[in-house]
Amino acid sequence: MNHYFDPGDGEWTSREIQVVLHGRDFTLETAASTFSPEHLDTGTRILLETVPDPIGAVLDIGCGWGPIALTAALRSPESTVRGIDVNQRALELTRRNAVRVGVSNVTVGLPDEVPDDLRFDTIWSNPPIRVGKAELHAILETWIPRLNPGGEAWLVVAKSLGAESLQKWLGERWPDAEVSTAEIAKGFRVIEFVAPGV
């Protein structure tokens, strides 16, 4: 059985779903073995309802079929948005959906395709919790340090899947950062992380 955090590079067929992003109706493509292929999941919806408009260079960790990256691009057309995923199927869907939405400021790719010197002002993510705690921490330890001083990361995590312990770990791992709860709704917590300033 394939999971959304697998490479997803076998044969596949897409399907269309109706989605509202940034107050607009879109018909987008999804596929099996991507995260939440049937609809916009509750956690992502809560994240997108909570976050302020992004600024500067934006990163979506685990972009799936693209709802977070596409919303960032719609809300902030002057920003550059990069979606990363280990699943090739997800990357192709996000590319296709960027065309459907009509945004040209979205780039997608594998995590190791991001230039080492690229920094971000904003991270939005519904991170892949089910990869396990050690792997999730490794993912965040890769990308959180790439925030510019004062940059913000917004993460949504189900309370039943360890949102509180993740928030505690973030504060302990980066004690000079500001880590807080931005929202709690429908079993999810939105965590705001502000990188230390200069």
TrEMBL record:
Lineage: unclassified sequences, metagenomes, ecological metagenomes
Domain Methyltransferase small: 26-177
SUPFAM superfamilies: S-adenosyl-L-methionine-dependent methyltransferases (SSF53335)
Protein name: Unannotated protein
MF GO annotations: S-adenosylmethionine-dependent methyltransferase activity
GO biological process: methylation
Organism: freshwater metagenome
Gene3D superfamilies, per database record: Vaccinia Virus protein VP39
Keywords for the protein's UniProt record, in alphabetical order: Methyltransferase, Transferase
